[in-house]
Amino acid sequence: MYFVYILKSLRDNKFYTGITNNLERRLREHNKGSKSTPSTLYRGPFHLAYSEKFQTRKEARERERFLKSGAGREWRNKLLSTHSPVAQR
Fold first, then answer.
1. Hey, which residues does 4 pair with through a beta bridge?
2. Are 1 and 56 contacting, i.e. CB atoms less than 8 angstroms apart?
3. pLDDT averaged per 10 residues, the chain (length 89)
4. Are the beta carbons of 19 and 59 closer than 8 angstroms?
5. Which residue in 12, 11, 13, 7 sits closest to 64, CA to CA?
6. Domain 2-88 class?
7. How far apart are CA 74 and CA 4, in angstroms?
8. What is the DSSP code string of the chain?
9. pLDDT number for residue 15
């Protein structure tokens, strides 16, 4: 099982999109600053804004690529402006 997730920085209100096979662990890592990517290292704490579940890494990676595209960012902004703090699909 793989997850595509969108985090919202409580520091700068910007989003980060990623992929993992353990969502809870990955959120903890981002919030601790351990094993964070350079783009999230100094932007925590984070709040999980959205996640989707996939059977394969390939499916999750394709969705992540879409969400990082211009159309995907538009979709994300529209979705997250109208939904509760944590949306799941």
1. 19, 52
2. no
3. 95 94 94 80 90 97 97 92 59
4. no
5. 7
6. alpha beta
7. 17
8. -EEEEEEEETTT--EEEEEES-HHHHHHHHHHTTT--TTTTTT--EEEEEEEEESSHHHHHHHHHHHTSHHHHHHHHHHHHHS-SSEE-
9. 94
Task: Lay out the sheet containing 2-9: strands in order across.
Answer: 15-20, 2-9, 46-54, 87-88
Contacts by 28-31, CB closer than 8 A, 24 or more apart:
none
Q: Where are the domains of the chain?
A: 2-88
| 8 Å CB contact between 46 and 8 | yes
What is the distance between the alpha carbons of residues 44 and 78, in angstroms, rounded to a whole number?
23
Total-model pTM = 0.86
